[in-house]
Amino acid sequence: MSTDIDIGDVRGRLGLIVPSSNTTAEPEVRRWLPDEITVHSARMALESVTVDALDAMSDDAARAAELLGHADVDAVAYACTTGSLLHGPGFDAELEERLRKAADAPAVATARSVVRALEALDAERIAVVTPYTADLDAKERDFLEASGFDVASIDGWGLESNTAIGALDADDAFQQVLDDVDGDDDLDAVFVSCTNYRSLAAVEALEAKLGVPVITSNGATLWDVCGVAGFEIDLDGPGALFELER
């Protein structure tokens, strides 16, 4: 009797670099990819989402990308928002280039993917919600404003523990966005930040309620990395972003 496991026809391999305590990026990415694209992960040590911890974590990024390159992945995504904007504008692009060289494959970093997604949606004035502490919110605001966006508001939960962030769900994201931005009729988009914040499932309901595009860290990263990988697939993700050409 055959013991082979049929995983279907593999048409592509996606490499995902995640913080070790992140429990959301992999299942959200897997949920919206067709079965013929396989997901392969590498982890970087992180327990607390603080400036110092994120800075230390980035030291593991190139090694993680190199190891994913051994799996002959078609592209690599660095799935950490604040970890890819920590040192301000330009750091995200430098990180992508470092990972590209290490993996010998196209690479994206979440912070840069978010910028690309907002630009593709022609967004200028945005609202941001996060699970982060005030110091990381300030860094995110600075990064987004330096990238050319008018940040109308930024609201954070004040959490440092990444496992606590991972315990949040789409209902939390939905309510946080409504509490922060409902009634602001002059927004072009809303951004729900953090790859460990389970928020993709809230996108369609939020867009229906607010009437503007809503993007999340994992949504932007997935949309972007599938584009650079050149996957010829029907990526039927939630919301306005996934209606755009990659």
UniProtKB/TrEMBL annotation:
InterPro entries: Iso_Racemase_Enz_sf, MaiA/AMDase
Superkingdom of source: Archaea
Gene3D superfamilies noted in UniProt: 3.40.50.12500
PANTHER family with a match to the protein in the record: BLR3294 PROTEIN
Name of the protein described by the UniProt record: Asp/Glu/hydantoin racemase
Organism encoding this protein: Natronorubrum tibetense GA33
